[in-house]
Amino acid sequence: MPRSSSHEGSKDRSSRAVRASARQVKRGRILVIDDEPIIGAAVRRTLCKEHDVTVVASAREALDLIASGQSFDLLLSDVMMPNMTGMDLFAELARREPEASRRMVFFTGGAFTERAIQFLETVPNEHVEKPFDPERLRSFVRDRIR
Q1: Which of 3, 5, 85, 105 is 20 to 30 Å from 133 at the Cα level?
Q2: Is the whole model's pTM more than 0.85, yes or no?
Q3: % of the chain with per-residue pLDDT over 90
Q4: Of the candidates 107, 86, 100, which has an alpha carbon nearest to the alpha carbon of residue 42?
Q5: Domain residue spans of the chain
């Protein structure tokens, strides 16, 4: 019976390691901004196995985190929130931290104002419909964090 050399066994282990690492997802830092605690919890649960997820309940909290020097690979923000909307957050980030504003993705879930409709039609950022499908959200985030 032919035996493989230790070099061939090493090559086989090496190629398995390369294939396994190709399947691995880059662990990203995600900031979720949504005034609905259930949505924030659902997004965290959906993404936390592959990414570090921070959830805040207001756009003001998000601004404070970013102003404190924290950086995120992706910001997932509700469009419609009380006090400061996702649209307001986008405008403020575009002024203060333009790179962060480019990494924003908006959650949309109906009950739009005319302003929100116009905003989503003109802003170059992507949006995800609520309710979201967990696997589609994971895939969406994976595609953007490389």
Answers
A1: 85
A2: no
A3: 75
A4: 107
A5: 26-144
Q: Is 88 exposed, middle or buried (0-12, 13-18, 19+ CB in 10 A)?
A: middle
Cα gap 104→32, rounded to integer Å: 10
Of 86, 68, 87, which is closest to residue 77 (Cα–Cα)? 86
Of 19, 48, 43, 16, nearest to 32 by C-alpha is: 43
Placement of tokens 């207001």 in the chain? 58
Per-residue tens of pLDDT for the chain, all 146 residues: 444 444 555 455 544 443 444 457 789 999 999 999 999 999 999 999 999 999 999 999 999 999 999 999 999 999 999 999 999 999 999 999 999 999 999 998 876 789 999 999 999 999 998 899 999 999 999 999 98
Q: Can you tell me the distance from the alpha carbon of 111 to that of 67, in angstroms, rounded to the nearest whole number?
A: 30
Give the number of residues written for the chain: 146
Measured CA angle at 112 (ends 89, 74), to 5 deg: 35
User: Is the domain covering 26-144 a CATH 3.40.190.10 domain?
Assistant: no
